[in-house]
Design goal:
The complex is a heterodimer of chains A (308) and B (270).
Chain A lengths: L2 H25 L7 H17 L4 H24 L5 H20 L3 E3 L6 H12 L5 E4 L2 E4 H24 L3 H11 L1 H6 L4 H27 L1 E3 L6 H16 L4 H24 L7 H27 L1
Antiparallel strand pairs in A: 1-4, 2-3
Helix pairs in contact in A: 1-6, 1-9, 1-10, 1-11, 2-3, 2-4, 2-9, 3-4, 3-9, 5-6, 7-9, 10-11, 10-12
Chain B lengths: L1 E10 L7 E11 L4 E6 L5 H9 L6 E6 L2 E2 L5 H4 L3 E4 L13 H8 L14 H12 L18 H12 L6 E5 L7 H18 L3 E4 L3 H6 L3 E6 L2 E6 L1 H6 L2 H29 L1
Parallel strand pairs in B: 3-8, 3-9, 6-7, 7-8
Antiparallel strand pairs in B: 1-2, 1-4, 4-5, 9-10
The chains are: A mainly alpha (308), B alpha/beta (270).
């Protein structure tokens, strides 16, 4: 698989991570570090089930549910036991490291021969196109297998994000958004704020674990270390997405998070191609997020001074 | 209707910051009545309102609303019976969400929130109709974010939201204190209209003696976590702003005595 295609597929898969981070960081204003454990949990649950020969769809959904439980745990620690949000996430993330090792039984589970969602996508693709192994898509030479994997990822992410959009337009989803916006107001309107936060974090980490489950299937293994740095990656995607759409509307922000994730992966691929030391990747991502967070305020201050 | 029996609340108990905000307060109000609480700063008038709303649970005593004991109910559960408008115009609305979405949230106050679609055409038409009565031209801006509105407009909308489903009890917590005089008048006028139209039961806290005299059918004066005066009936009808002010002056004189005495003791003995 060539560099651009794999960056594209990876960006699509990790856009679910970006959506999860968008929910916790942006909708609930909750700095949720559970992410780093839940993405691995999703991958671990899915990989172990796949190795046992369980159908990939069931294994993927199981990953989603596992992440949801992890998120709900963070929510309970924060709301019922009044722990600081960041600390709740750190505790659950740390605990998940052991949980993930127990789930996998070892630190790495390869999926070499297992039937996965990408391999199913390739099988379906093979039924439709029997002639050549090279496809021309908008002037882009593609391996036929890669084409169907990317296409299936695209379809999957589209369905999930449309569902998410509709969910946030329901009575429950609107109340959730209001919880992040103004908890005092939504409490006075009869919504259980604690319940909303728990449910919201469950949804967020469910999506993140779903991303992990897909990632494991795509890269062909689950690894106990794979979650490190994922919060910052997700945040970087969300920030890029916000810059791309420059809007407050829900639909555009969801689309933006997905586009941000893909663009971020492409940028990473290009930087690596140009000889960036892979060891520096996380440092540079962290610096990027730092700059993206402080620059708008800094610029505004400069402009105000200039006006004076 | 609302019955408060011997409630007390102490914040930060057994510490140097101990505040005995409510001390054995009892009072009750009839359905359809409009009670106004006034008092000096720190008299416990807002604490009283928050005790009813459920912002915190009282240490002792009982609160009954519409024949239901709500003493141990959490805030969000009490919202099934109570509508609220806050002092801060930013408190009552979700700023990044649209006017329509805010009103839609209010249209399900205290009801279960499931996966039903939040905004439908019927509701939007109903909103336009009700917002038109505000005379603020907001009916054409339903999809604008509330954050772009002025404090007065927000308070008017919060009032509309609190009374969208007729509440058993409406709590108004100095809801015009943070507004400019013109907006404050507008919001008071609107409150009056909605309260008389729907025949609501209202408990209102205010700083303004003028509002206390003009609105409502009963005035309660609080001081240091206790009810000091309760003006009803003929006494309430006779009362003027000056009478209220002189009662406050009376309190102030009594207060002055204590620190002065304390200072004298300090000089002489320490």
């Amino acid at each position: 698989m060539n560099l651009l295609t794999s960056a594209f597929a990876l960006g699509l898969i990790l856009s679910l991570l970006a959506l999860g981070v968008y929910i916790s960081f942006r909708i609930f204003h909750f700095p949720d570090i559970t992410t780093e454990g839940s993405i691995t949990l999703g991958a671990a649950i899915c990989a172990v089930m796949l190795v046992k020969g369980i159908h990939p769809i069931i294994a993927t959904v199981a990953g989603f549910v596992g992440g949801g439980l992890a998120g709900a745990t963070t929510g309970v620690l924060h709301t019922k036991f009044k722990l600081h949000g960041l600390l709740s996430g750190i505790l659950v993330m740390t605990a998940l490291y052991s949980v993930n090792l127990h789930v996998m039984g070892k630190s790495n589970v390869p999926l070499l021969s297992a039937r996965t969602l990408p391999s199913i996508a390739e099988e379906i693709g093979a039924k439709f196109v029997k002639t050549s192994t090279r496809l021309n898509f908008l002037g882009w030479e593609l391996n036929q297998q890669d084409f169907f994997v990317v296409g299936a990822s695209f379809l999957f992410v589209t369905v999930v994000s449309v569902l998410l959009y509709f969910f946030f337009r329901t009575n429950l989803g609107t109340a959730m958004r209001a919880t992040g916006d103004n908890p005092q107001m939504i409490r006075a309107l009869g919504a259980n704020v604690d319940g909303m936060i728990i449910l919201g974090l469950a949804l967020s980490n469910g999506l993140i674990a779903l991303s992990g489950a897909l990632l494991a299937q795509y890269q062909g293994f689950a690894d106990v270390q794979m979650g490190i740095g994922m919060v910052v990656w997700g945040l970087a995607s969300v920030i890029i997405g916000e810059a791309l759409v420059g809007s407050q509307s829900l639909g555009l922000l969801i689309t933006g998070a997905i586009m941000g994730s893909i663009l971020f992966r492409l940028l990473v691929a290009i930087a690596l191609r140009w000889g960036l030391n892979p060891n520096d990747l996380k440092l540079i991502t962290a610096l990027f997020v730092f700059a993206a967070l402080i620059l708008p305020n800094l610029l505004r201050g400069k402009m105000r001074k200039a006006v004076k | 209707m609302l019955e408060i029996k011997n409630i007390s609340k102490t914040f930060h108990p057994h510490s140097v910051n101990e505040v005995r905000a409510l001390q054995d307060v009892s009072f009750s109000m009839q359905k359809g009545s409009f009670v106004i609480i006034i008092g000096t700063n720190g008299s416990g008038k807002s604490t009283m309102l928050n005790a009813v709303a459920g912002t915190f649970l009282v240490d002792t005593g009982r609160i009954t609303l519409s024949n239901t004991d709500i003493t141990r109910w959490p805030e969000h559960r009490r919202a099934t019976l109570i509508g609220r408008v806050f002092q801060n115009p930013f408190s009552g609305t979700a700023p990044t969400m649209s006017i329509a979405e805010n009103l839609a949230l209010a249209s399900r106050r205290g009801l279960p929130r499931g996966l039903g679609w939040n905004l439908n055409k019927d509701l939007m038409d109903q909103m336009r109709g009700r917002i038109r009565t505000l005379n603020m031209g907001l009916e054409d801006r339903l999809n604008n974010a509330i954050g772009s509105l002025s404090g007065g407009q927000r308070q008017a909308l919060t009032l509309l939201m609190a009374s969208w489903l007729k509440p058993e009890l409406l709590l108004l917590d100095e809801h015009t204190a943070a507004l400019d005089p013109k907006s404050a008048d507008q919001v008071i006028q609107l409150s009056h209209e909605i309260i008389t139209r729907d025949n609501l039961t209202v408990l209102m806290v205010t700083h303004s003696m003028q509002q206390a005299v003009n609105l409502g059918d009963r005035i309660i004066m609080m001081h240091r976590g206790k009810l000091l005066h309760d003006l009803t009936g003929a006494e309430r009808k006779r009362v003027r702003v000056d009478d209220l002010l002189s009662r406050f002056e009376e309190i102030r004189r009594k207060e002055l005595l204590d620190p002065a005495a304390a200072a004298m003791l300090q000089r002489n003995y320490i």
